[in-house]
């Protein structure tokens, strides 16, 4: 079963750096850097806003926990927003590709 | 358990306005305004297209239904596309941050 | 129950073409072309990068498998990344709109 992780970064460099490490550790098969996002948030009771870089990582359900935890370690923030979910449908070619990350190697 | 909501808006102002209300009502912790999306759709049997503003809201599974319903009320469209889903994985820091929205306060 | 599919394309034309066919076959109700994404990936053991066009398709859980498989057929790549998931929350208006794709017609 394939899986996705959404995670915004402060800039492209940190996004690319994390993506390359996760690829090297075979925890994701691909990162899609979506580009600039306008973030509006509440932090310690204060309303704030910032420009961040949104990223979607394609991975497999079998390594989703490990990939999310590792992304949390690699991320420049102390409290990153790393949000992963399992997918319910994918054509065989996608499943086989991403299955290469899990035990279906 | 964290959760995400995807919802496109007609413009940034309505997206920001809804985000600020949902933040104030502690139904989301952050909104990421992804920027312009090209929408192609079928409406009342007619093919149409429009430029909209895509937004991802970060929230918690315990308030996901309430946040989605409230977003439906706040949205300028009579039939908005508000699509929320629970996530399966997140590092502890993300869980604790978003847990602040639910009973894990 | 509503559902989403994320799928990047090599260009806007192929994205629009697939969207229009899926709309015509009532397998999706709307496509949001998110725009350019920077993709970093591993393919046959080689690290690579490319500019692609990210797309989110809004559909219904009852046709999610069919829509994902059909998207896999329509996609220009032999191994496309087609990743679909069921949503857990949506206001009534969204459910009724997307329900029109499934048996809730």
TrEMBL record, chains A, B, C:
<dbReference type="Pfam" id="PF03091">
    <property type="entry name" value="CutA1"/>
</dbReference>
<protein>
    <submittedName>
        <fullName>Divalent-cation tolerance protein CutA</fullName>
    </submittedName>
</protein>
<dbReference type="InterPro" id="IPR015867">
    <property type="entry name" value="N-reg_PII/ATP_PRibTrfase_C"/>
</dbReference>
<dbReference type="InterPro" id="IPR004323">
    <property type="entry name" value="Ion_tolerance_CutA"/>
</dbReference>
<comment type="similarity">
    <text>Belongs to the CutA family.</text>
</comment>
<dbReference type="InterPro" id="IPR011322">
    <property type="entry name" value="N-reg_PII-like_a/b"/>
</dbReference>
């Amino acid at each position: 079963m394939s899986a996705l992780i959404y995670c915004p970064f402060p800039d492209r460099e940190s996004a690319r750096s994390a993506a390359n490490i996760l690829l090297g550790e075979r925890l994701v098969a691909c990162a899609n850097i979506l580009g600039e996002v306008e973030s509006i948030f509440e932090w310690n009771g204060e309303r704030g806003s910032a420009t961040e870089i949104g990223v979607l990582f394609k991975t497999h359900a079998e390594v989703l926990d490990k990939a999310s935890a590792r992304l949390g370690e690699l991320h420049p923030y102390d409290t990153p927003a790393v949000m992963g979910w399992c997918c319910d449908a994918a054509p065989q070619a996608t499943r086989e590709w991403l299955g290469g990350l899990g035990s279906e190697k």
